[in-house]
Amino acid sequence: MTNFKQQLNEKDLMGTFVKTPHPHIVEVLSMANLPFIILDAEHSPFNRATLDQCILAARAHSLPCLVRVENSSPSTILNALDCGATGVQVPHVCSAEQAKQIVRQCHYGHRGRGYAGSSRAAQYATKAMPKHLADSQAITTVIAQIEDPEGVDNADAIAAVKGIDAIFIGQVDLTVAYGAETVNDEVVRTASFKVIEAAKRAGKPVGMFVATAEQANQWREAGVSFFAVGSEHKMIIDGFRSEQALFNS
Hints:
Elements: H1 4-8, E1 13-18, H2 23-29, E2 37-40, H3 48-60, E3 65-68, H4 74-82, E4 87-90, H5 96-106, H6 129-139, E5 141-146, H7 149-153, H8 155-159, E6 166-169, H9 171-177, H10 186-202, E7 206-210, H11 213-220, E8 226-231, H12 232-248
Parallel strand pairs: 1-2, 1-8, 2-3, 3-4, 4-5, 5-6, 6-7, 7-8
Helix pairs in contact: 2-3
């Protein structure tokens, strides 16, 4: 499978969130030439079984698959990675200490991720432990999502944490947290630029959710390099609305 962590540092990428907990959606999206998808286990009804099935579908089609986990507990992160996810995107990261703990839980080692050679990630005990340890270290992608004022204030310290591979800006949550009306309000834009600059100083790629590719291109100029554009829900709605408009015109 493609080393997504390496790709993040080499070129700009546009993927999408997946909200439907069914492998057929992932299979269909694999035909769209997307460089990655993010299974949204935070805000969509994924459970352990459906997460497993969707990750399996992604791996079957060599589609890099991140999981936006619902929380940063060790068991939550362990489950996503043992199922074979490319990496995790952890919401509401507010401090460097929290980021360090997340990194520990994503990687094998003392007080870190528990080892099981029987997992899909370890190819069901057919991969030797040294090989699996090395592959996991090289491939597992850890993304810290900053979407709280505290996270913005600590953006430099979070981005500097060794093992945090990228930063993701949650503009919608920032809008709510700052009491703003839209993601375009000045307080949200200022916070976003602060996070972008922190990521640049740390030499880390920075990502963002946007509604359209046009918005993505605007933020690319500011230094954002990977995007989750909409979701399969949005694409279905927009697609049929567009066809209906043409039909009724």
